[in-house]
Amino acid sequence: MSSSPLKRPLLLAYAAGSIGSGLFSTVPGLLLLFYLTDTLGVAASLAGLAILLPRIWDIATDPLVGAWSDRTRSRWGRRRPFLLAGALLLPPGFIALFSAPVGDPSLSFAWVLLAFIWATGAFTLFQIPYASMPAEMTADYHERTRVVAHRMAFLPIGILAGGALAPMLIKANSGGPAGYRVMAVTLAIIAAVAMLVAFFGTRDAPQLPAPVETTGLREQIRVALSHRPYRRLLVGFAVQNIGIGAILAAVPYFCHYTLRGGEEAVTVLFVSLVGPAIVAMPLWMAVSRRFGKRVGYIAAVLVFAIFALSLLVGAEGRLALVAAQVGLLGVGFAGLQVFPFAMLPDLIDDDAAVTGQRREGIFTGLWFVGEKGGLTLGAWLVSQVLAATGFVERRAGELVSQPEAALVGVLVATAVVPAACAVLSLPLLFHHVESARNRAT
């Protein structure tokens, strides 16, 4: 492992992979629940189950893939074979996810359930080893922030494609099932190219060999979770992702039923989110160097919470105001992406210094259990809020009138739940969530 600066082409190739991961993280979280309830006619409570069950499978396989990549020996290293497998398997699963048969909601539910299981499994093969790589690419504290910042600078491109381009593609192709299929094919091609760039472009990345001796998976999980700073950071990160998952799943409902703006409003809000998030990356890096990662992280959480809660004033005719609020929320969102991922490799080093084992994969696998579990619970919470407030599902082309309680539920899911989750995570971050080396720097 080197502590010298990494070459820019390597950083850019590695970062390109986050376009694919950003796409897949955003599109199902943003559109799948709405696709189920407002295109396929699946009841909100059942639609939430179609999202929850595949994510449980996904979460269960994250540590397994992480530990598997830790032990892998190949001419491509420990991680890169998984990048290739994920890049090839994810696109067909993603296309199938938005190509469900229309007419029988039960059949539509079963189709989406199985396709989502395929897609989430393929995504795990790529994402866990991919996110493990910074910990072995460099040993330098600030260089790791640089690696993660490059990755997070590309991530909003995937988020933008998922959050802004996807609704535009759906609308441009007449909406409904056909529009979703065209969107899925287009974005699957973009994701595949980005992920393959990461695979081929990191062939010269510094790598560590697989350990000669490894402990069992259960023991590795126990060791990782016994690391108190890692555990605090993981739980705080997971709680924040419940809020992020809620706001992603709620935005289409917020745009359609609160702002009365349809797909155009979804596109405007995602451009408003991603543009400031990209600009804010250098800002948060400067904050990290001046005040440390933990202080910057807490500041980002507060910004996110304040401007998420401000969305309670959203109403028809206020799209410009809401776009400005979302832009400031995007500044906080950028910090919520940069700081935890920049702190994770330092905590992995702490474990290696004590145990002599490099467990990047298992630490990262558990990390994505927290992220995916949080995002899934957030989307599921939205489905339950909608079901509890009497939301009326519909098939494409049908017109329905939502009860007043459901409109209030949309506001609660969009503004209150994300802000509350951010605030709930703060006590964990005020404790020591950084490595000993980080605190001493």
TrEMBL record:
Residues 10-437 form the Major facilitator superfamily (MFS) profile domain. Keywords: Cell membrane, Membrane, Transmembrane, Transmembrane helix, Transport. It is a multi-pass membrane protein. One of its GO terms (molecular function) is symporter activity. Gene3D superfamilies: MFS general substrate transporter like domains. InterPro entries: MFS_2, MFS_dom, MFS_trans_sf, Na/Gal_symport_CS. It comes from the Bacteria. It is found in: Cell membrane. One of its GO terms (biological process) is carbohydrate transport. CDD domains: MFS_MelB_like (cd17332). Pfam families: MFS_2. GO terms for cellular component: plasma membrane. The chain crosses the membrane at residues 12-36, 81-102, 108-131, 152-170, 182-201, 233-254, 266-287, 294-313, 319-344, 365-386, 406-430. Belongs to the sodium:galactoside symporter (TC 2.A.2) family. PANTHER family: MAJOR FACILITATOR SUPERFAMILY (MFS) PROFILE DOMAIN-CONTAINING PROTEIN (PTHR11328:SF24), MAJOR FACILITATOR SUPERFAMILY DOMAIN-CONTAINING PROTEIN (PTHR11328). This is MFS transporter.
